[in-house]
Design goal:
The chain is an alpha/beta fold. The chain has helices spanning about 25-35, 60-65, 85-90, 105-115, 165-175, 190-200, 210, 215-225, and strands at about 15, 40-45, 70-80, 95-100, 120-125, 145, 180-185, 205. The chain starts with 12 loop residues before the first strand and ends with a helix. The mean pLDDT is about 95. Bound molecules: D-xylitol-5-phosphate and zinc ion (ZN). Zinc ion binds near residues 17, 42, 76 and 205.
């Protein structure tokens, strides 16, 4: 009996972040991901209020679909009022919609609305938000995203202080026999992903490290072997 080994909950998934792709050729950036045999694409939506930057809207997802992308759109809403936009993103093709816990709105109702629209529902924690903030919602989500940088920009250094939070949430997941995915986003490369995997993460957003990788097939294969 491998009694001392923790059972693995999910095989590792690499979700390259479109934020680090070519913003004048987003369909080509998405195709780069799909051509490697990867299934997920992380799409960062920023409103200039919740985070000090602007990116894409629902029409971006719809256009990627029209250009033939069949990737799983892992849609990260960094919005002060996400409930105003979940329907538009679901209709545009978002397979999973993740909303931040920090703004004050009805999180449970918004998660339920996302699922009613036919998308998977995720919750996101900023680095300085304690894990206890999401504890009441763990049975209402398909994914929990732990930010490993302050959201807003790609290319920031990974925050190792988030590793205990991952281990804590993974422990709750096991205790309660839940199966939501545990994702990390920000400063993730192969080395930091290994640390996150050891702490319980199974889903890895990579922006800069993916799009700058000279040998993308080797990069993807390394993540598959985490
Ligand atoms: C940051 C975004 C990330 C970003 C990560 O606010 O949520 O998804 O693309 O970029 P890297 O991997 O470069 O840190
Ligand atoms: Zn993101």
């Amino acid at each position: 009996m491998a009694g001392f080994l923790r059972p693995v909950i999910h095989a590792p998934v690499l979700a390259p972040s479109l934020l680090s792709g070519d913003h004048a050729h987003l369909a080509a950036s998405a195709a780069t991901v799909a051509d490697l045999g990867l299934k997920w694409l992380h799409v960062d939506i920023m409103d200039g209020h919740f985070v000090p930057n602007l990116t894409f809207g629902p029409e971006t997802l719809a256009a990627l679909r029209r250009h033939g992308s069949a990737l799983f759109f892992d849609t990260h809403l960094m919005l002060a009022q996400p409930y105003r936009y979940v329907e538009a993103f679901a209709k545009a093709g978002a397979d999973l919609i993740s909303i931040h816990i920090e703004p004050d709105y009805d999180h449970a109702a918004t998660l339920a609305r996302i699922r009613a629209l036919g998308s998977q529902a995720g919750l996101v924690l900023n680095p300085d938000t304690p894990a206890t903030a999401v504890q009441p919602f763990l049975d209402q989500i398909d994914l929990l995203l732990v930010m490993t940088v302050q959201p807003g920009f790609g290319g920031q250094p990974f925050r190792t202080d988030q590793l205990p939070k991952l281990a804590l949430i993974d422990g709750w997941r096991r205790e309660r026999n839940l199966s939501f995915r545990l994702e990390v986003d920000g400063g993730v490369d192969l080395a930091t992903a290994r640390e996150c995997r050891a702490a319980g993460a199974d889903t890895f957003v990579a922006g800069t490290s993916f799009f700058k990788a000279a040998d993308k097939p080797a990069f993807a294969a390394a993540f598959a072997g985490l």
